[in-house]
Design a protein that fits this description.
By secondary structure, the protein is mostly beta strands. It is built from no helices and 11 strands. It starts with 13 loop residues before the first strand and ends in an 8-residue tail after the last strand.
Length: about 150
């Protein structure tokens, strides 16, 4: 069972975007945060030269920060989201299920859009070694990214 939050008219304004290979294929794709609550995966169509929506998913949070990273030796990019829930979520696009799957979820602060809780700014190391999450004022958190014993 999944909780679902549906708006009648989806937002048309784009809050932030990241570029990467999220489905593990040779195509570059865009992950777009629309209206701070909707996550979309866009893929270019090579025959027409236009972008088309591959997947769209409503989230039960407000997206404050968005970044992408690739683990060393991997062929797939991951999406990192800083949300108003006071947490950092690492998402992976599952091509078989055609949805975003939560790989890691870490809570570090209180809920709400607070100036002292990290999540407003999300940055990833280009080599996939660390992710930094920062607040508007003071607090900064660095997560070092490693694989577990099962190479996940």
């Amino acid at each position: 069972m999944f909780l679902y939050n549906l708006t009648l008219q989806p937002a048309s304004a784009i809050g932030s975007t990241v570029l990467g290979h999220f489905s593990g294929e040779k195509y570059q794709e865009l992950v777009v945060a629309r209206g701070h609550q909707r996550l979309e995966l866009w893929r270019p169509d090579t025959t027409t030269g236009k972008l088309s929506i591959e997947h769209s998913e409503d989230l039960f949070c407000r997206i404050r920060g968005l970044a992408s990273f690739r683990m060393a030796g991997g062929n797939k990019d991951y999406v990192v989201i800083g949300a108003d829930t006071g947490a950092l979520a690492v998402l992976e696009f599952n091509s078989k299920e055609r949805r975003f799957v939560t790989v890691q979820y870490h809570e570090f602060g209180r809920t709400g859009l607070r100036r002292l809780v990290a999540g407003q700014y999300v940055a990833a190391d280009p080599r996939g070694r660390a992710v930094m999450v920062a607040a508007v004022e003071r607090s900064k958190i660095v997560y070092i990214i490693t694989r577990d014993s099962e190479a996940r």
